[in-house]
Amino acid sequence: MENPKYKRVVLKLSGEALAGERGYGIEHHILSSIAQQIVEVVSRGVEVAIVVGGGNIWRGVSGSAQGMERATADYMGMLATVINALALQDALEKEGIDTRVMSAIEMKEVAEPYIRRRAIRHLEKGRVVIFAAGTGNPYFSTDTTAALRSAEIEAEVILMAKKVDGVYDSDPLTNPQATKFTSLEYIEVLSKGLGVMDSTAASLCMDNKIPIIVFNLTENGNILKAVMGEDIGTYVGR
Predict the structure, then answer these.
(1) Dihedral angle at the C-alpha atoms of 209, 131, 197, 167, nearest 10 degrees?
(2) Residue stretches of the chain with pLDDT short of 50
(3) What is the gyration radius of the CA atoms in the chain, in angstroms?
(4) Are residues 34 and 217 in contact, defined by beta-carbon separation less than 8 angstroms?
(5) Where are the alpha helices (H) located in the chain, listed in sequence order?
(6) How far apart are the first and last CA of the chain?
């Protein structure tokens, strides 16, 4: 059996990815598909941590735009990520994978508090760790959470699971002439405003030399392909 390229990864899932075509809520067949793909990765001995967004339930930025106080709207978004994390935990455990949800906002009845050393120990024991509630602070996205947690646990790569198969120079869903990038440097992502992740997250990845692979989540088996180092999606690094 071929050895995976990466031994410890952070998988970034958007909340919207869990919603499917409806655009809101949670589609259980999508959860099941993601869980089955993660099983394949874990079976290769890869340590997997997951950062999940909450945009399928609530987006803090949208709430703020409607007149809600920004910090309050962001805290609501953090709670939405916990709902998604628990749903993902349930799907993974149905596949026989031992998991831990670690929340940046303390809620002992449903999740462990995030403690860096404990998270690393869970990974070393073969458990999938799901990071919920963002960074625990308003004004920071779950993209920034993925970059921060990756640096903290010394992950080798961030796998950015999207609904498109990489990074384009414009939106491929609205522009059929959009050009896909096979590789990019961090500074290009920042200077061109390509929307891979927000500028805070991209800068954090650049400063800590954490590569990013942007790929299509909807194609079954892509998570494993990314971990194995196959040429899929767009690679962002130096």
Answers:
(1) 90
(2) none
(3) 17
(4) yes
(5) 15-19, 28-42, 60-65, 70-94, 116-124, 142-153, 186-192, 199-208, 222-228
(6) 30
CATH number for the region 8-237 comes to 3.40.1160.10
- Alpha carbon distance 22, 141 (integer Å): 23
Residue with tokens 């646990």: 153
Which residues are CB-neighbours of 177 under 8 A, at least 6 positions away? 170
Q: For residue 17, what are its two tokens?
A: 């990815």
The CA-atom distances, in angstroms, between 178 and each of 92, 121, 128, 170 are 36, 43, 36, 5
Which CA distances in Å does 93 have to 81, 98, 173, 231? Answer: 18, 6, 34, 30
Domain locations along the chain: 8-237
Residue 95 near residue 28, CB atoms below 8 Å:
no
Q: pLDDT tens-digit profile of 59-105?
A: 777 777 788 899 999 999 999 999 999 999 999 999 999 999 999 99
